[in-house]
Design a protein that fits this description.
- With 112 residues, this protein is of the alpha+beta class.
- Helices cover 36% and strands 36% of the residues.
- The strands form 2 sheets. Strands 1-5-2 form a 3-stranded antiparallel β-sheet. A two-stranded antiparallel sheet has the order 3-4.
- A hairpin with a 5-residue loop joins strand 3 and strand 4.
- Helix 2 packs antiparallel against helix 3.
- It is elongated.
- The mean pLDDT is 95.
Length: 112
């Protein structure tokens, strides 16, 4: 049995979120939350929120034991990019890409 949670259209680059999400893959739930709490990246707050949501889904919807949960899968996909224009010298323009990402966390129970 697995419990999952997703956060879609998060206004962060998927490349930057992957740096943080690689830290918690295959870790126990408590250990993953501790790692995220002490990681000085803005993506860690969003990932922590998704992880807590997946844990709540596991406990309330599937009656899983919170002490046995671990991060079975976690991945980040690229979302749509918002394209904006920044005026430059001599009437030119540069494109600004505001990237988004979709974060998915899957929790499973460890075998006792």
């Amino acid at each position: 049995m697995e419990a999952r949670a997703t956060a879609r259209y998060v206004r962060m680059s998927s490349r930057k979120v992957r740096q943080v999400i690689d830290l918690v893959r295959d870790k126990d739930l408590g250990e993953a939350l501790t790692i995220l709490r002490f990681t000085p990246k803005s993506a860690s707050l969003v990932i922590e929120k998704v992880l807590k949501s997946a844990a709540a889904n596991a406990e309330n919807n599937y009656d899983m034991d919170a002490d046995l949960l671990y991060v079975a899968e976690c991945y980040v996909d690229q979302g749509p990019t918002l394209k904006r224009i920044m005026p430059r010298a001599r009437g030119m323009a540069d494109r600004i890409r505001k990237r988004t990402s979709h974060i998915t966390v899957v929790l499973q129970e460890r075998e006792v």
